Amino acid sequence: MSNDDGVGAAMGQFAALAANGEFAVNERGGQALLKAIRNLIEWIDDQQVRSAYLQQIAKLGTSNNAQVMQPFLQNVASDGSGFITQLQQLRTTLIDAEAGIRQAMANYQHADGQAADKLR
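The structure corresponding to this sequence follows.
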């Protein structure tokens, strides 16, 4: 899955809807979402060293099975749809989501201000 389909596309739509003022999120809800996003981005960043090990050729021995599995394991980790690739795409998607939530919070503040003005 690339960042252009699935979750990536959904986050792109999410950010576009927020930019157009289509929805709003209050401060408390927005901060809770932002905290969860920041925690997941931090976890992904912390996995960089471990992820590097997955990209190396596994030391499985010299048997025929080991020789077949070594490149397979390396591809599962780092090819176009591999674990590491998908993890990095998730990080990008989370950054997009963060921007959308910040915009939705601004939308809420704006809508709340307009509602208050009507009551005056």
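Residues 20 and 107 are 9 Å apart (CA to CA).
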